Amino acid sequence: MAPPALAACTRSSPYIGRSSELDRLVEAVRHPPGTVLIEGEAGIGKSRLIRELLRHSAMADQVVLRGVCPPMREPLAYGPVIEALRHGRERLNAKERLKGTEWGPRVGPPRAFLPELSAVLSGQRRISLEPVEPDQSAEPDASSPPAQATRADAPLRPAQAAEADALALPAQVAPAVQRHELFPAFRALLAAHGPAVLVIEDVHWADSETWDLLLYLCADPPPEMVLVLTCRRPCGALPAHYSALNVSTRMRLAPLDAPQVGRLAAHVLGVPQVPQDFAATLHLHTGGIPLWVEEAMRDVPAPESATLQPALLADLPAPPGLHDAMRELLASAGRAASAAIRAAAILGEPATEQDLGAVAGLPARRTGAAVTRAVEIGALYEVGPGRYGMRHFLAAQAVRETTPGPQRWRLHARAAELLATKSDRKPDRLAHHYRQSGNLAAWVQHTLAAVEQKLATADATAAIALLERVLADTELPDSAHDLFVVRLSRAVLNGITPAETIDRLRAALHHDRLSPAARGEVHLNLGRWLINQAGQLEAGQSEIEAAVTELREQPELAARGMAALALPSLGTGPVETHLHWLRQAEAALGDSVDAETIAAVLTNRLSVRMQTADPKVWEDIAELAQILPSKPQLARAYFNLADAATWNGHYGRAYVFLMEGKRLTSENEGEFLSMLGDGTSLRLDAASGQWAHLSRAADRVIALAGDMEFLAADAWLATGWLSLWQGARAAAAHHFDTALRTAPHNVPVVASARAGRTAMLLAQGRTAAACHEADLAIECLRDKGNWVWAAELVPVGIRVLARCGRMADAVELLQQFEDGLTGKDAPLATAAVDAGHGALALARGSASTAAAHYVQAALHYRQLPHPAEAARAHESAAHCFSHTGEHEAAANQFTAALALYAMLGTIHDVARCQRHVRSYEGAGKRGRKGYGQELSPREREVAMLAGQGMTNHQIAEMLVLSPRTVEQHVARALRKLNLNSRTAFADQLPEPRHAGRTLR
């Protein structure tokens, strides 16, 4: 029978990765006689392969005799063969094959082994060989056994019964001479079953007598029988003559590969699939052994597939069955080899022969033989030239867990001593070994070094995980507690931190063990995290304000807190409050020489000036690299500047800032900083018309942010505007609403999202709702007082207020907007001023004035470039010209808008403008003068599209023309412009063709 653990774990599992082996096995059993040997390590699936064989359709009418070699201290001789014969006794009773069979003179039919077959065997002939009669006249020899009857029908006396019983244990009492008679008897019994398959599992646990019988049967199998044997290899318990088995088919089962492990894990967890990185890590943990994969997954909860992370596997216990397998392997290895195996498990990574000997405490003369023995029995594997390790992570863990405490502590102590001498020593590994050996002082020292090393390479996630493990350790000395809590509060600023870590910091703030100085810094860092990563601006400000109070004796840290409160985009309070905090921070900085503190204050000062559109900020930015020598601080400054420059409309410079910031973070792998840059990049691409991959990139940012939704606010905002411009109003509403929910206290995000909702509601004809939305945005901006962030709101806000009959409010909004831009450098706001004046003039009935403002606004938007708003300004100007009867000007504006809409791919806008352009062309045919050598609006439109690389057929489909008509327009445009190639249209008709891309 199969081992209990295997039977339990594989009963309902899918059969993965063994189809070719099964086909080969089925083919082998179809061609008797022969012997099939299936080899593989524990848990590899040998018994499962047998079960799949027996389920196969080819075995439907096949007789199968099965026996298992149990792992007994003193196995029963011939036990598995006898068990197989007992399984087949019913078939044997139905056969006449034993008639005429002759048994040996001493052994006879092996009734002692199979009493169930007595009725079958009682009619068979036994050869009677009479012994020589003893000399009756001679004195009996006391050393000689008494004469005994040898006839088959002679009654058994007690001595004879004892001899018969002895036949059941021939290894102990039966004479060796019986084997040449007993083995043929077993073979005859097996042959009597006719066509059959004899399966003997786990022959590595067989006793020597059973091994000899198997050697005999394999050498000359019954003519209609196939023997199938399973054996654990490598294994230290195999007899020396194992290789003498006469095998016709040998099969060595290999581990599953990573994709197969992933499919098996998904089945056990009950999910459609698991992530590739999860499957790869599980493969490393289990070595691809199916049983250990299944056992490991039993200890993993069944979450959604997307939440399965490799970190879930870090602390999985080794399966009990693997413990048993490792104990057996260690027991068979011998003392020296066992010590080498335990040393490899303690080290946990490939090591040289000398290093294994040093950790195991073996003398040099014995180390080589010990490692060789461990490799021979499959406990160690040569991972690289001269380096040896355990088969997989769980195997090493099982060895560690089964190693007695005192021995394990000594091994860890020797491992620490060894690693401390290495030139490439790893602090985290040293800390681990010192902790496991009980050296707490060294553990604390090397853990701090490991944390610093991980933070130096911006591996904040690993640093946080290490710090949390240490803080959860009850053996952490009180003297080190403050140090680790403060270090954890610093580390969370550099990565995407789970909520559980923040809960730990909050709990530490209320713990008596935390000193006042440490409490102040934890408040500071917790507040910075709440602002920067969670978007909880008011809560973060409260934490920092508490920190500033507690850090009176540490002015440099207090200055950092004040600088964090200085950013105008954080919170709904007025800008003047933020400027006050900036002045306080600069005063607290005083004569400090701390580079990090100076960099933090300077970075936020530059960010404040850029957010408020200070035109003189560019002078300091030019020397930014000299002002901030620290790469992380410099990267953060560039990302902050890119964010503010995008709101202000300095798109070209924003692209440059992003490029510099990403260049610096690529060397440091700053996950949090990279996400800040990614969000800004999405808003920038949305504004400048780079829409091809925007939705996919936004989805990636949203997925990376996970529960920390604030980090995805820019992604929701960018996709909201994209959906609105593309006419997907329901999607736009959802995206804008999500942006408002995730960043309710970030004023520029709130103003932009409400501007988008206002435009969407106005387009739906819901004027009252649009007016309410505009009022909310205007109130927020008035409270803040930084009007550069009203650039997206003002044009649509004036339109909706005017449509609601609130002309005075519209005039006041525009006036406040213009006053707030005095002395500011904000190109997007400048364009919005012209658009706002155009909307106000149109509402007052002055179409010609409105047209002039809209034309100027379109020019400003194109210079940014902001093609979507430029197209709308052109179209608004066209309608104004149409009202004044300036049809040629209207046609030109519609054509310009059409070209931009075509570039953006907004089909509905293209179709709308096409209708207007065609109407003006028709008016020209009814009596308007010709265009002479100038391009007509249609010719210009066609030439623009041709210059963008579109074919005649594509242009025809877009403009609803025939390809022949398009060809004629292209020919006339080439002739009028004296050009030889349609590609030259791009230079002659300088429309914005993704101009922002060249600025990256």
From TrEMBL:
One of the GO BP terms on file: regulation of DNA-templated transcription
Alphabetically sorted, this entry's keywords are: ATP-binding, DNA-binding, Nucleotide-binding
Region: Disordered; residue ranges are 131-157
List the Gene Ontology MF annotations in alphabetical order.
adenylate cyclase activity; ATP binding; DNA binding
State the InterPro entries in the record: AAA_16, P-loop_NTPase, Sig_transdc_resp-reg_C-effctor, TPR-like_helical_dom_sf, TPR_rpt, Tscrpt_reg_LuxR_C, WH-like_DNA-bd_sf
Q: Boundaries of each HTH luxR-type domain copy?
A: 928-993
Among Pfam families, the record links this protein to: AAA_16, GerE
Recorded GO cellular component terms are: cytoplasm
User: Can the keyword Nucleotide-binding be found in this entry's annotation?
Assistant: yes
Checking CDD domains in the record gives: LuxR_C_like
Report the superkingdom from the record. Answer: Bacteria
Descriptive protein name: DNA-binding CsgD family transcriptional regulator/Tfp pilus assembly protein PilF
**Origin organism of this chain?**
Streptomyces zagrosensis
Species classification = Bacteria, Bacillati, Actinomycetota, Actinomycetes, Kitasatosporales
